[in-house]
């Protein structure tokens, strides 16, 4: 088997670079989910643990010649092993499960599902993006980068066969993502029209549908036909919408909908690979066609469930391993008070409370009362200790009636008030 992940070796620079890039993608999945309420210490700790311990076990199981799920093992699982060309399972699903675990332990943002008295809101409070323009820019950047993620997973193009693998991966990546964007947006439009009688066009559904299509096609990008890639992407858009609604129903706060995109999209992609893997594409990419997609097995008249069974086992493995290992780690962060910021800091916003100034001009005036409270609490700490370490925020008196309040730094004793009880 000369193409695809079989080229992976710990000692090859290409492998080290790819695994580094995959680990970066993995950690950013969790970062998006827990945004706006998490301490920097938690980001640093979970990134080390997730990329250094949780993910490598998944990657080894899927791609190493010694991995128990690997199609490249001397004795692969059930004589087949798992087909995941570029990481729907070990990368996206692993990161999505970790994000789900941390979101549950961390809890929702203030005001998202409950009011200040802890009473459940009739409808979840909408907390949309601050810039749709930047949201689109990020989506297109990810889409462009996926052409390194999927076609690049062929590692090298040293023959006509490996060139065919990379080119098919590129075509399927395009079809899957485009289909996901279309199904996400138009399905959202139809649902909204049925509810309200008004046609609306949800750009967020289009963008996240596109990303879910990308995640889903990642596993089978080199082993399914282009028509199947379109079907996988189309259904991935529906998977995203259903999973996003499910998160709201269970009051799990995902700031960027990374869990529906990556965990649900990744598991759907691994599953669909077990349905749609084509014999001729599998031979080109992996060198054999002993066990192919379930639909093709029925075409052979056998109904052989081997490959689909391996895919299901891999989904259960990623779910179990990632959740069981990452949950105690997150609980330890919570016990050490390294996980969530102080409620007052969250109300002020981390740009001001932790990064020394608002990112946008409107932030300072929008939270002026909370800024005053935070400044007073930090001054109290400074006065009590007298050590003069750290910074406390205070507002200067505006010189004009319509002037924005300015945030100034004064010395304080260190940790903000309330941090010990966050």
Number of continuous helical runs: 15
Q: Based on CA inertia axes, which overall geometry fits?
A: globular
The average pLDDT score comes to: 86
What is the tally of beta strands? 2
> What helical percentage do the residues reach?
55-70%
Query: What is the SS-derived class?
Result: mainly alpha
Low-pLDDT ranges: 1-7, 392-422
Major sheet strand order: 1-2
Rg calc: 24 Å
- What is the H/E order? HHHHHHHHHHHHHHHEE
User: How far apart are the termini?
Assistant: 54 Å
Largest sheet: 2 strands, antiparallel
Strand content: under 5%
Describe the structure.
The chain has helices at 13-33, 40-63, 88-106, 132-149, 160-196, 203-220, 226-249, 258-276, 279-286, 294-300, 306-335, 343-348, 350-355, 361-366, 368-385, and strands at 391-395, 407-411. It is mainly α and 422 residues long. The protein has a two-stranded antiparallel sheet with strand order 1-2. The protein starts with 12 loop residues before the first helix and ends in an 11-residue tail after the last strand.
Keywords:
mainly alpha, two-stranded antiparallel ribbon, single chain, 15 helices, 2 strands, disordered N terminus, 422 residues
Topology of helices and strands:
Blueprint (H helix, E strand, L loop, with lengths): L12 H21 L6 H24 L24 H19 L25 H18 L10 H37 L6 H18 L5 H24 L8 H19 L2 H8 L7 H7 L5 H30 L7 H6 L1 H6 L5 H6 L1 H18 L5 E5 L11 E5 L11
Antiparallel strand pairs: 1-2
Helix pairs in contact: 1-2, 1-3, 2-3, 2-11, 3-8, 3-11, 4-6, 5-6, 5-7, 6-7, 6-8, 7-8, 8-11
Give a short synopsis of this structure.
62% of the residues lie in helices and 2% in strands.
């Amino acid at each position: 088997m000369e193409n695809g992940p079989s080229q992976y070796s710990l000692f090859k620079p290409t492998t080290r670079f790819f695994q580094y890039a995959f680990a970066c993608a993995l950690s950013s999945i969790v970062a998006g989910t827990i945004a706006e309420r998490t301490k920097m210490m938690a980001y640093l700790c979970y990134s080390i643990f997730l990329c250094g311990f949780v993910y490598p076990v998944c990657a080894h199981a899927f791609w190493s010649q010694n991995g128990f799920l690997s199609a490249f093992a001397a004795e692969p699982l059930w004589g087949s092993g798992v087909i995941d060309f570029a990481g729907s399972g070990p990368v996206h699903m692993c990161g999505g499960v970790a994000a789900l675990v941390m979101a549950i332990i961390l809890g929702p943002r203030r005001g998202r599902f409950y009011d200040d008295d802890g009473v459940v809101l009739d409808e979840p409070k909408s907390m949309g993006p601050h810039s749709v323009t930047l949201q689109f820019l990020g989506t297109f950047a990810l889409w462009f980068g996926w052409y390194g993620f999927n076609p690049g997973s062929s590692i090298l193009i040293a023959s006509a066969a490996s060139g065919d693998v990379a080119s098919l991966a590129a075509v399927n990546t395009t079809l899957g993502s485009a289909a996901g964007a279309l199904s996400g947006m138009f399905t959202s439009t139809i649902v909204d029209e049925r509810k309200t009688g008004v046609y609306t066009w949800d750009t967020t559904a289009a963008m996240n549908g596109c990303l879910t299509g990308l995640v889903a096609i990642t596993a089978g990008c080199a082993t399914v036909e282009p028509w199947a890639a379109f079907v996988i992407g189309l259904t991935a858009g529906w998977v995203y919408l259903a999973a996003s609604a499910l998160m709201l129903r269970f009051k799990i706060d995902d700031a960027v909908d990374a869990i529906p995109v990556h965990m649900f999209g990744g598991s759907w992609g691994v599953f669909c690979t077990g349905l749609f893997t084509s014999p001729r594409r599998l031979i080109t990419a992996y060198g054999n066609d002993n066990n192919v997609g379930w639909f093709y097995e029925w075409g052979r008249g056998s109904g052989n469930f081997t490959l689909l069974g391996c895919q299901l086992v891999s989904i259960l493995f990623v779910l179990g391993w990632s959740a069981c290992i990452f949950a105690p780690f997150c609980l330890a962060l919570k016990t050490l008070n390294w996980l969530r910021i102080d409620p007052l800091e969250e109300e002020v916003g981390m740009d001001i409370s932790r990064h020394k100034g608002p990112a946008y001009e409107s932030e300072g005036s929008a939270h002026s009362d909370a800024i005053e409270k935070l400044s007073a609490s930090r001054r109290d700490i400074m006065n009590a200790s007298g050590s003069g370490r750290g910074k406390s925020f205070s507002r200067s008196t505006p010189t004009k009636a319509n002037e924005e309040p300015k945030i100034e730094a004064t010395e304080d004793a260190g940790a903000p008030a309330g941090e010990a009880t966050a």
